[in-house]
Amino acid sequence: MLTSTLESRTAAVPNLSIGPATYASVQALIASSDDRVHRQIRVAWDGRVYVSDVIGNLDLDSCRFALPTFCAGTDYLGIKAASDQGFVERVMNTLNYAWANGLRGIVDYDRIRG
Q: Per residue in 24-41, pLDDT tens?
């Protein structure tokens, strides 16, 4: 089971406990950050889900998997992104699928149907 806490490598995002990857927890994760800089959602080996300023394929050994990088200014993080039900569901489904199936590396949520 993917149980996680929100962490960030940026002081602008508070630490939160998001519990299992539910719609509400993923929505809170997305809303808690912003897209002023490139960022990426990553999952640590212990199941913690966090928004990272380390992006792309950099330092992937320190995490189990990551979603594609969200480029600055594209509204993939923040309040606006968190209000997009379809996007939040895609992220939630990807996190749950990748965790349950032991995926590694960068996991493309557009290729996972759920």
A: 999 999 999 998 999 999
Report residue 57: phi and psi, to 5°.
-95, 10
Distances (CA, A) of 35 to 3, 4, 56, 59, 92: 25, 22, 15, 21, 19
In 3D, which of 93, 5, 107, 110 has the Cα closest to residue 50? 5
Angle at the Cα of 102 (from 65 to 39), degrees rounded to 5? 15
Helix (H, G, I), strand (E, B) or coil at 105: strand
Say what the pTM is: 0.80
Residue given tokens 């600055």 in the structure block: 72
